[in-house]
Amino acid sequence: MIRVVLPPHLRTLARVSGEVKLEVEGEITQRSVLDALEARYPMLGGTIRDHVTKQRRPFLRFFACEQDLSHETPDALLPEPVASGAEPFYIIGAIAGG
């Protein structure tokens, strides 16, 4: 069971509170987790990744085990504590201002 923590605006869109728990088939990568997330919550499609390119949207970051994974390749394995469900995979809304 993979645990995912969404930023508040995506929790509202998906109509969830707190962590989301997902069953993910195969290797636990950013791509497989996001595919499972979008399959379970279709309203999130295109909000985290571009519909066509599947690249991470600007102003969203991915973290796990106190590491910024935002620039890792989508098929890189996530840390073992995330794969085992001991630690969550965080999707964080970045803050920008002027």
Quick rundown:
With 98 residues, the protein is an alpha+beta fold. It contains three helices and five strands, in the order βαβαββαβ.
Q: State mean pLDDT (0 to 100 scale).
A: 94
Order of helices and strands: EHEHEEHE
* Total number of helices: 3
Q: Work out the helicity level.
A: 10-25%
Rg: 13 Å
Quick one: how many beta strands? 5
How many structural domains in the coordinates?
1
Largest sheet: 5 strands, mixed
Biggest sheet: strand arrangement: 2-1-5-3-4
Shape: globular
- Which class in CATH terms? Alpha Beta
CATH topology: Ubiquitin-like (UB roll)
Per CATH, the architecture is Roll
In terms of structural class, how would the helical and strand content be classed?
Answer: alpha+beta
The share of residues in extended strands comes to 15-25%
User: What name goes with the CATH superfamily?
Assistant: Beta-grasp domain
Low-confidence stretches: none
**First-last Cα distance:** 40 Å
